[in-house]
Amino acid sequence: MTARSIQKLFDLSGKTALITGGSRGLGLQMAHALGEAGARIMLSSRKADDLEQAAAELQAAGIDTRWIAADCSKEEDTRRLATETLERMGAIDILVNNAGASWGAPAEDHPVEAWDKVMNLNVRGYFILAQQVARAYMIPKKAGRIINIASIAGLNGNPPEMQTIAYNTSKSAVIGFTHTLAAEWGKYNINVNAICPGFFMTKMAAGLIKSIGEEKMASHAPLGRLGDDEDLKGVTLLYASDAGKHITGQWLAIDGGVSVVLGA
Which end of the chain is less enclosed by CB atoms within 10 A, N or C? Predict the structure, then answer.
């Protein structure tokens, strides 16, 4: 086989990507990355208004984008999302499991209902959507890329004041889920990898960052900064493209080096 150029290896022309939690923050950043590399994009989140705005932003950048409102904490919605995406797009070559929720409370007082809410979206929803997409498209085609968004919160314990036991536990589970799925589905030529972001100024993290202080949060990273609107683009494209075709079952921390300091 003649080795392809780096441009060809990273080219996603003709591919279709489904991105959950894609209407803002990290999901929208990853949608830009995949779309800029040539992929068609299907965005999903709970709110139609947010999706309309995000799709308009991507379309203005010349990216073929559509959207479906769905709540991936609900099994019926999650299955509908996969089915409708395949009906409308004809393919799901790349699945980005990104939709997520968090809840802050001391472990001894953490509501069970809140634990279930976090787990249903952050773990159960990932499993149901990956299973549905794989059964309907990736396994028959014997090709696919699944990118699961975990977190550095799933690698270590956090400072006590963060009080996010359900979120941290869910993100540890996502890493285990990624390892296991990669081992099982390698025979179908499906690559399954995880990204572990550190702190980015997203809507979910903004309250925590503001309460602790952006400068203090940044000071914990060897690079002395939080993540920005570009920092997930490279790894997302690597995992989604043929440049990463021999990578599976792995996680990569995009955190400015915080996990090095913590000893992950």
Answer: N
Structural domain of residue 43, as residue ranges?
6-262
CATH of the domain at 164: 3.40.50.720
From the list 126, 137, 167, 239, the catalytic residue is: 167
Q: What is the pLDDT of residue 205?
A: 66
pLDDT digits (tens, 9 = 90+) for 70-106: 999 999 999 999 999 999 999 999 999 999 999 999 9
- Enumerate residues 6+ apart whose C-beta is below 8 A from 194: 147, 148, 149, 150, 174, 175, 178, 250, 251, 252
- 172 within domain boundaries: yes
If phi over 0 gives left and psi between -120 and 50 gives alpha, with beta otherwise, what is residue 68? beta
pTM score, whole prediction: 0.95
In a domain, 169, yes or no: yes
User: Structure tokens of 64?
Assistant: 């073929």
Counting the structural domains of the chain, the total is 1
- Domain contains 1: no
Does residue 239 have an active-site annotation?
Answer: no
| pLDDT one-digit tens code per residue, 217-263 | 778 889 999 999 999 999 999 999 999 999 999 999 999 998 887 76
